[in-house]
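note to self — DONT lose this again. spent like an hour looking for the file last time. sequence + predicted structure for the chain T wanted, 189 res
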Amino acid sequence: MRKRIQDLISTVKENGAHIFYSFENEEKYVDNLLVYVTAAIGLGNHVMIIENDRILPELQKRIKAEFNEEQQEMIHTINNYEFYCYRGNFNKDTILSYLDNMLSPFLENNIPIQTWAHVEWRDQEEIIQNLGDYEKEANVFLQATKLINICSYDANRVPESLKDILMDSHEYYMTDDTIELIDRKSRIK
């Protein structure tokens, strides 16, 4: 998977990409995240990681072990609960504003940055619609900024209806062991 991730990052580095990652194995997930970080740093890019408090301690331990001090300064982490439930629930406008505010200092100063976001939510009404609307608007933002972003979702929490929405709002589909370009023509129903 290392080579696949590195090849993808090299391929999309000029125009950016919005990647939907449906993971099943947490160990592979963390390994893939670290490969992504390594590839980003190899290009001289900073990385913003939005991750849950269960995975963050292991991730931070591995970052300290695998990256030197200068590289560690290029890795920025934020708790995904604080990010996605900033106002108590999953609200796309609040999240998109928060994302814009987080990335603006990098973009305004021409500091290259990539993002990795583990998307999670609390139970709430119309969450599938909210997630879909958020991803569609995030896709527009990411295309305009030419950022490379991976949106990771726990496969066990993604019903088929949400997966269809996510496949329509991303350019690539990634699993623990594969990455493929999403063929929009074959997805038309």
